[in-house]
Design goal:
Keywords: ATP-binding, Nucleotide-binding, Transport. By secondary structure, the chain is an alpha/beta fold. It is built from eight helices and eleven strands.
């Protein structure tokens, strides 16, 4: 595998309990690429992210191979230095009682808050401020996470994921539970991240989450890759009708696609 490859999966199958959730996934993603994984709820998108981040593991078969950044095996604590993962959930029960800037710094330690035994350096503080500036969230530095709106919390969690300058930012349903204004603010901030050169791998079932900078779409259905290609070829009424099983009307505006 070349140095330009972030992820390579060959014939990867994942079971959760007695159910096979991913079926023989073969996929390659380059470093710095901007990719959206699109599909209905329950299609296996989030399990794919969990497989990439080693939260779940593939079934071992003679044909299966999975490499991340050129390695088949990773110490999970080392892997976290290369990936920034953002989900809809806060990292732990202490996070709501933590100031915004401290929640971001805690990302260096994969901790829910800055516990007394953690050694925080001036460089860590500076990089936390840098990540907050990128997310246009410096005004949230001293606000408790639990007192923030859902949109503000999401920006803090993305800054936390970016604080160690990961190779790829992984986003699992980033706009869930956000109102229209917060969705717009989040998408604008993520565009800044993409334009800075950080790779983005986004899981979503909302077409409007797909940023103009995302030029590749992977469609998933029933645990399999249904289609994979340039967004201009796949974001069509016909393909979306096949993917979601409903008639779709599309409109493009300012680089975003909307459907109803």
């Amino acid at each position: 595998m070349s140095d330009g490859t972030f992820l390579e999966m060959r014939q990867v199958t994942v079971a959760r309990g007695d159910n096979v959730v991913l079926h023989e996934i073969t996929l390659r993603i380059a470093r710095g690429e901007h990719v959206a994984i699109l599909g209905p709820n329950g299609c296996g998108k989030s399990t794919l992210i969990k497989t990439i981040t080693c939260q779940v593991y593939p079934m071992v078969t003679p044909e299966m191979r999975m490499e991340l950044l050129g390695h088949e095996r990773w110490d999970v604590s080392q892997l976290r230095q290369h990936l920034g993962l953002v989900s809809a959930d806060l990292p732990g029960e202490r996070t709501p009682l933590t100031r915004g800037v401290d929640a971001v710094v805690a990302g260096f330690f994969s901790a829910s808050t800055l516990w007394p035994n953690l050694h925080v350096t001036p460089e860590m503080r500076e990089r936390a401020h840098e990540a907050l500036r990128l997310m246009e969230a410096t005004h949230l530095e001293n606000k408790l996470v639990g007192e923030m709106s859902a949109g503000e919390q999401r920006r803090i969690m993305i800054a936390r994921a970016l604080v160690h300058r990961p190779e790829m930012l992984l986003l699992d349903e980033p706009s869930n539970a956000l109102d229209i204004a917060a969705q717009r603010e989040l998408r604008d901030a993520l565009r800044n991240v993409a334009q800075q050169g950080t790779g983005i791998l986004m899981v979503t079932h909302h077409l409007a989450d797909i940023l103009p900078e995302i030029d590749r779409v992977i469609m998933m259905r029933q645990g399999r890759i249904f289609a994979d290609g340039p967004r201009g070829e796949l974001i069509t009424a016909g393909k979306l009708r096949e993917l979601f099983g409903v008639e779709v009307t599309l409109m493009e505006r300012n680089g975003y696609w909307h459907s109803w």
